[in-house]
Specification:
569 residues; BirA Bifunctional Protein, domain 2; 3 domains; 28% strand
């Protein structure tokens, strides 16, 4: 296509509202524009990349035996009431009434709609298995839409749902999606890891998240340096180091710790290590306070806590809520004599003669011991894993890189089919609930994640398979007929070969053409300028490595074809 015929409103400056590099570059390169908070328009280049990602997704989903459908975005609230999620989903579900006063919502995901479709249309095991997918706009009224396409309110998702008659069938469907996802993200040219994810309270059996590795990712993932273990923070299991020897329990004593509230301050003051301090955090779980005990140098992993308590929502109590629940100012809390339910992280069971708050302003206890001085309702792994922990599988060293979740696969089991009474007749004529799986890809997030992973100071460095164009030709002799003819000829012949080519035919200075070509991230740039006039040479530059190849004009097409093939392999 011709640059002059395309809407590519590039910007010289970073837009002030953009914090992350993908948002800045997508705006600067003229790929997207914001309409309102978390809602974006895709301009021609943005849409081209989106379509390339979609195409890869479609090809792999179809190859895995899934069938494409397109489901409505507006969904009746009744269906959500039936599954029980109308209450649970919270304010991310945008609800409204139509002119007849009927409650509706905008689909943030489609388990309800698809289960309704299948329960009304598949009645026998003979119609199974089936896997239905769509690529469609979702709406989630995110509390903090941010980072451009990374966390929008309106975004494009590929969502697939499998229905099986048997557990073995459902497991095979999951495995087929796992494979397809590996194919999809590899074909997009991304560095990624599939990590074990938490299945929460839904009762599903397993789940993996696909994470694009990028230092700017919102998530931290846990990877073993020695074996194939990879999990997200919510799932990564921490073990409590075994107690080497039981020491004698010393007598409990109270000590004044004036104004010392934080772990570091108490430890400095008493000259103890944080490993010898027990900290007490108050959380509000579904409206009720609960105290969580953990070692001074550890942090709570709230999803683990939520699962242990079987709660829908768990949040750290504010200082005021904490005081209202316990009568103790934060900083001096401890388990001895505390009047609210107390749970503990597993590591606490290995601590002895530790220091902890005395539930009295400016006082701590020394030599407290679990069992002798207080009890807890439950213990479980409640803490965030760290690099000082070891791999739960092989004991190896752990790494905690950052990642961006671009896909999620989940074996749901029968949670939705039972709630929505979606059943089929098995081969014995017995009614059974469908065994389901759901599989999402954040298609628009993939575009942003690809840029977070692939950029430099000059702009985007697109992986070839998802670049809007494969080649950009710069005509640097706008007023020179020979150069213009050569540029146009090469452009035509590349297009005839099916190579996506952009011809920069603008009346602009070479400097700004070079800058824009770098900003847009098109993998190969061909320059036709002075060298062409002098010696008939054109210059091909590879955006990623900056390598320059000079070739006679007549060989340019062949050379580019070769380079493109090699880049794909
Ligand atoms: P997150 O933890 O990032 O909010 P999620 O667990 O809510 O994601 P899913 O419900 O599993 O996400 O949705 C499937 C995929 O859709 C995610 O893997 C992600 O790539 C994408 N996605 C989810 N929320 C958004 C959003 N607000 N903007 C863009 N993409 C999103
Ligand atoms: Mg979410």
């Amino acid at each position: 296509m011709l640059f002059t015929k395309l809407l590519i409103p590039t910007l010289k400056e970073n837009p002030s509202e953009a914090d992350v590099v993908s948002h800045k570059l997508l705006m600067r390169a003229g790929f997207i524009r914001k309409l309102t908070s978390g809602v974006y328009s895709y301009l021609p280049l943005g849409l081209m990349t989106l379509r390339k990602i979609e195409r890869i997704v479609r090809e792999e989903m179809n190859a895995a035996g899934a069938q494409e459908v397109l489901l409505p975005m507006v969904q009746p609230a009744d269906l959500w009431a039936e599954s029980g999620r109308l209450q649970k989903y919270g304010p991310e579900l945008l609800r409204f009434k139509d002119r007849h006063g009927r409650e509706s919502c905008l689909g943030p995901t489609h388990e309800e709609v698809i289960t309704d479709l299948v329960r009304n249309n598949i009645h026998s095991y003979r119609g199974l298995p089936v896997n239905l997918y769509q690529i469609q706009t979702k709406f989630r009224d995110e509390i903090r839409p941010r980072f451009g396409l990374m966390r929008g309110r309106e975004f494009i998702m590929k969502d697939a749902y499998s229905f099986d008659a048997t557990e073995a069938g459902a497991d095979a469907a999951y495995e087929a999606m796992n494979k397809a996802y590996h194919q999809i993200f590899s074909r997009c040219g991304l560095q990624f890891r599939a990590v074990e994810a938490d299945t929460g309270t839904i009762g599903g059996s397993f789940s993996h998240e696909f994470m694009v590795l990028a230092d700017t990712g919102e998530d931290t993932i846990v990877i073993c340096r020695q074996c194939s273990y990879a999990a997200n923070l919510e799932k990564a299991a921490c073990s409590a180091a075994p107690l080497s020897e039981r020491r004698e329990e010393k007598p409990l004593s109270k000590i004044e710790t004036p104004g010392k509230r934080k772990v570091d301050a108490v430890c400095d003051f008493l000259k103890i290590a944080p490993q010898n301090l027990l900290k007490t955090m108050v959380y509000i779980a579904d409206g009720r306070p609960v105290a969580v005990l953990l070692r001074g140098d550890h942090e709570v992993q709230t999803v683990k806590l939520k699962n242990m308590l079987g709660a829908n929502e768990v949040e750290l109590a504010s200082d005021q809520e904490c005081f209202d629940a316990t009568g103790v100012p934060t900083g001096y809390l401890g388990p001895i004599g505390l009047k609210i339910p107390v749970v503990a992280d597993l590591t606490v069971t290995t601590m002895q003669n530790f220091t902890t708050g005395a539930n009295e302003k400016n006082f701590h206890y020394l030599n407290a011991n679990l069992g002798r001085d207080f009890t807890v309702e439950k213990t479980a792994d409640l803490r965030m894993i760290t690099t000082t922990d070891h791999c739960p599988l092989c004991g190896g060293e752990l790494e905690l890189p950052r990642g961006i979740e671009v896909g999620h696969i989940f074996k749901l089991g029968t949670a939705y089919s039972e709630a929505l009474n979606a059943k089929f007749l098995d081969s014995n004529g017995q009614e059974q609930p469908f065994i389901m799986g759901c599989y999402g890809i954040g298609v628009s997030r993939v575009m942003a994640a690809a840029i977070e992973q692939n950029h430099d100071k000059d702009g985007i460095v697109f992986p070839l398979p998802i670049a809007p164009f494969q080649v950009i030709i710069l005509n640097l002799g706008f007023t020179d007929d020979a150069i213009t003819t050569a540029a146009t000829d090469l452009y035509q012949s590349l297009r005839e070969k099916g190579i996506d080519t952009l011809l920069d035919d603008r009346d602009e200075r070479p400097g700004s053409k070079f800058k824009d070509a770098d900003l847009l991230g098109i993998p190969f740039r061909v320059t036709i300028g002075k060298r062409f006039s002098a010696d008939g040479i054109v210059e091909i530059r590879d955006r990623k490595h900056g390598e320059i190849t000079e070739v006679p004009f007549a060989e340019a097409r062949e050379m580019l074809t070769k380079m493109l093939t090699e880049a794909i392999i």
